[in-house]
Amino acid sequence: MSISSCTLRAQPAETTAPAATTVLQRVDGKFRNPVAMHKLGGFETMKLIWAVAVSKPAGTVPTKAVPVQALSQAQLLAAPDNTLFRLGHSTLLLKLNGHFFLTDPVFSERASPVQWAGPKRFHQPPISIEELPPIKAVILSHDHYDHLDHAAVLALAAKTEHFVTPLGVGDTLVEWGIPKAKVQQFDWWQGVTLEGVRLVAAPSQHFSGRGLFDGNKTLWASWVIEAPDLRVFFSGDTGYFDGFKQIGEQYGPFDVTMIETGAYDKLWPDVHMQPEQTLQAHLDLKGKWLIPVHNGTFDLGLHAWHEPFDRIAALAARRGVKLSTPQMGEAVNLRDPQPGQKWWLTVVEQEMAE
After folding, report:
1. 146 and 105 in contact (C-beta within 8 Å)?
2. CA-to-CA distance for 290 and 276, rounded, in angstroms?
3. Mean pLDDT lowest for which of 38-52, 217-231, 333-347?
4. For residues 260 and 234, what is the distance between their CA atoms, to the nearest angstrom?
5. Across the chain, which distance is largest between two alpha carbons, in Å?
6. Residue pair 348/316 in contact by the 8 Å Cβ criterion
7. What are the phi and psi torsion angles at 311 (to 5°)?
8. pLDDT at position 9 over 90
9. Dist. CA 325–CA 313, nearest whole Å
10. Do the bridges between strand 30-31 and strand 26-27 make them parallel or antiparallel, or are there none, so unpaired?
11. No. of H helices and E strands in the chain?
12. Cα separation of 262 and 281, whole Å?
């Protein structure tokens, strides 16, 4: 993948890199994080394989139904601007300036290269792809299976005007048959304005790859999303790093941050955040309201399925941080979010009662 192949854009990129920042984190054909991450040794690797395959603790999957508020196209079209609908995991539908933007769409039954094995959904999406209204842009953070769903991308192609991705991820979409004219790819600190909504790829600390031999050949990113009188942040997947402070200085304060809170473990500390780090990232970003995402849909960690909600809710209460925890499908006013019910506690109570 040459650098020139990673510049498919419908219009020139808007570059907003701080002067002291090296934009392109790419060496010998592979992208890298600015700070080297911890590499698992042989013993740690075997420990991780054993934990996931053999000794996974109980409670990582709910035994009772996760509540979902079903959505219709009519509801979405009638919703006011600056409304967010959480569809599951890191899939968020935002209505901004009269148009719909969709992050990391995953609608398949499993977050896996095959649909007969791998992490299975806890709940169905609140709405089908067929029922969705026209999408102005699909915003992708990276190429992992729980964020880049091949079947969903192909199903969305006809109703989506733009696919906005980090470098290299767009090449994957084109290989899948998405027209080049619909694909725009960006390095960190680059972006585009679509119908008055500005999308900027920002740094994150993660990795990429969908197979055994393509590790880190595509870039990963968080996203700054700016609409008239509204500024929100979508983390994608990331470990905690100094980049949050830089993004906060460059683009904050944010009205709402949607930050990953789930699938963490001490065995992989660099690429996902503990809830304490999620909260600190929100503070670094100068966020007003926090919506924790990357939870409640797939079993991707070694913790109880509800633990991310329990921990972030307790931390937010202790630190006086405004937290919104909508049910799947529940509408959130991004200008004035509601705290939301602690819906997961009801599910846990039902589990304990059985």
Report:
1. no
2. 13
3. 38-52
4. 9
5. 59
6. no
7. -70, -45
8. no
9. 9
10. antiparallel
11. 8, 17
12. 14
